[in-house]
Amino acid sequence: MALYANYLQLELQQIDTYCQTKIFYHHRSMSEDDDECYDEESEHLDACTQCRFEYRSLCDAWQACVQNRGISPTKETRAYQAMLREGFQVYKQAHEEQAQIIADGSFVESIASAIARVGHAVSLGLVDGRGHNASPFAADYFSSILNKDILAEFMIRPQSWRAIENIDAKLFPAQILSELPVAIWQSGGALRNLSNGCFPHRKDHSLALSPALEGAQGHIENATSQLRAFEFGTLASSAAGRSHLDDEGKAAMDIYLGSMLESTDLQKLNLDMVVYNGDDDNGNRPGYYHIGSALTCVKSKALRHVSIYNAALSQQDLEAFCRSLGRRIESLSLNKVDLLDGSWFNALERLRDSLSSRCLAGHCEISFSGLSGGEFGDQPEDQSSSWPGSISGPLSMVKRAEQFVSGMEERNVYFT
Question: Which domain of life is it from (predicted)?
């Protein structure tokens, strides 16, 4: 129960920090004699103050409960401790039931059976939260602490995968990543479109490869052999933090991604690795996810739409990937892609040879933003946005490369 209490306190601390900021700006506006600048802070000052008081009260009550230490047994203290005990029992039971239906396979079997009865191609989206980027708190923010009914509901809400990892619990749901596609395939369903926004960060990476299935990798490849669209990271809800995968996690991720990318029917590929990026050893620049080994698994000559964001690869892997794209591409977007060694030149030449005539005819669109390494040099310090067109400094250089590939820039003029 101590881990559960600590998890809740850390989650609710976001509200406490929000209220602290509101109060700070309110007092600053008053000291500057600016009555209009922070009207909203003035309106919510009482609620912010009450929230901070209640947050400290519930933290004291919960810590006293889990540490078996005595504090003044007020009515409020007893109420908060009762909520903690009741919430933990509901939370514990829900997680035990979840682990059971995942472990015995009944969860994926039920979904796969239902999908098989539909009788047509399947699109599947996987996220690690209750809703895509949905806030866990009440709409007015304060009610998550001040309203006991809403607080009780908050205490038993589903957790994100990152939260589960933070309390050092086993990440059973990771098995679904491979077991569900395999179950759909074994039930006779055809998985055509897959969007996956989750993958273990800190541990239990092998669970994503479904070790309970004999020959797991081969099963995944068979289950996804008819994929026409694969998106990874675009539904991610773990925006609260970014971190590199360790070697075990990286190996599991590469196997998982490679299995998806081997589909010869693949027409759309969208990879955004932003939540797996972090600072380098010196903390100076983003350390992008090394995507090269996964991209070498691309086999489809039917690819039409390709987008890669927040990733790094070697010159050899970049050139191999560009050779694999074929001549049917209708859109190619590279945003915040870092070349780890060598030169961009051969890869861009290859893309130009394959795509420039289609671009000039209006059948293909190229978008480059935030390319780095090789001729582009290190990443600019002001690359704070992942949206194309938002990066200053070497942007004009990158845009000239975009025009070069599109056939609108003279050959070699960019690099000479």
Answer: Eukaryota
Rg (C-alpha) for the chain, rounded Å, is 25
Helix (H) or strand (E) holding 44: helix 39-67
Rounded CA-CA distance 206/347 in Å is: 34
Measure the CA–CA gap between 60 and 140, rounded to whole angstroms. Answer: 24
Q: Which residues pair with 231 in a beta bridge?
A: 195, 270
Distance, in Å, from the CA atom of 59 to the CA atom of 65, rounded to the nearest integer, reads 10
Helix (H, G, I), strand (E, B) or coil at 197: coil
Q: Which two tokens stand for residue 304?
A: 């039409």
Q: What is the pTM of this model?
A: 0.81
Which single residue is written with the structure tokens 């998985």?
191
Q: Check residue 173 and report its DSSP letter.
A: G
pLDDT tens digit string along 7-26? 899 889 888 888 888 888 77
The token pair that represents 244 in the structure block: 């590199």
Q: What is the pLDDT of residue 242?
A: 59
Q: What six digits make up the tokens of 37?
A: 């600048």
Could you give phi then psi for residue 401, rounded to 5 degrees? -65, -40
Question: Is the Cβ–Cβ distance between 103 and 176 less than 8 Å?
Answer: no
Q: How far apart are alpha carbons 265 and 257 in whole angstroms?
A: 15
Residues 272 and 274: their CA atoms lie apart, in Å, by: 6
Q: What's the DSSP call for residue 194?
A: E
Cα–Cα distance for residue pair 144/110, rounded to 1 Å: 34
Helix (H, G, I), strand (E, B) or coil at 52: helix
AA identity, residue 85 = R
pLDDT of residue 22: 81
CB 391 within 8 A of CB 286: no
Neighbours of 382 (CB within 10 A): 11
| Euclidean distance between CA atoms 317 and 327, whole angstroms | 19
Specify the DSSP element, H or E, that contains 126: strand 122-126
The answer to whether 363 touches 327, Cβ cutoff 8 Å, is no
Backbone torsions φ then ψ of 413, nearest 5 degrees: -65, -25
Instruction: State whether the Cα torsion 325-326-331-332 is positive or negative.
Output: positive
Report whether 178 contacts 211 (CB < 8 A): no
**pLDDT at res. 201:** 81
